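Q: May I have one protein plus its fold?
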Amino acid sequence: MPVTVVVRSASGGEAPSLTFDGGRIVIGRSDGSDVRLPDPSVSLRHASIRAQGAEYALVDEGSTNGTWVGGVKLGPHTPRLVKSGDLVRVGRVWLELVVGHKAPTPDLGLATRDLALALVRNAMDAMGDDTRAVVRVAEGPDMGADLRLVEEGRDYVIGRAEGCDLPLADEDASREHAAVVRRGAQILLRDLGSRNGVYLGDARLGPEREVVWRPPTMARVGASVLALDEPVSLALAELEAAADEPLPDAEAPPEPPPSTAAPSSTAAAHAPPASAEPPGSRISAHADAPIAEIASRTAPTVIRRPRRVWTAADVMVVTIAVAVISASIAGLVWVLR
């Protein structure tokens, strides 16, 4: 059954997620991780989720800051079964696990990278850093000229014509040679039917076909060599190369409230019967009380019987009994003399 990993620590908008249907899912900071979390408090290989039949187990892979399920810290390399809705903390990043029938994320390798870039971009935006990608002329007559890809979804045209977004004084370039567009975390390059073609690395692009352009691969337009500078990619690479950052317990982020997971079937089976009281009212009434006080409040009730009322017959019987006992004692005393 597929499992979805939701990044609950992400800021702004809907929490990003990835859905897997495999035997092992690696969570970490390295580019080889299935869930790539660019935070220095997350180890390169921090934890893993392993399928065990129809269930999943979470394992800490010897991380620097540990792996937590709710408020419980896992022992290194010790599997712990998890269920849908569990909140997991790796370093300072909170994740939510959702087990259910959901289609796995297509092209997980690309989706994993895009997730990491989106997390870095959000952090940089929050700090006011410039995250816009820049196309720079690395070789050619216009070396040093650059083009900032400010608007998402817009075609930025590169060529010899004066009206191009990046005009080139390159005789081997066509008037409108290539187009670059930014869509989300991806930069796409397209040949606009040029005479000499567009090359990405050593591969020539087909006409009017968009291809993903990732650093450090260079592009060639005519005799000009273009480089793509992505501040977000550079920051991601620096984060992945950094040493683990120890996280004091006092700086650990609080647990977020559950959001996406439905109660498991096991939890539903053990749920208390419905009553007229509002949900949680009994617990909240004693939430801050000492254990002894709670125990005294929940102890079984003692049933007291009502006192018996004496009747005239009862008084007569008691009087005769006392007289008989007194006569017996007097006779015993006379015999013993």
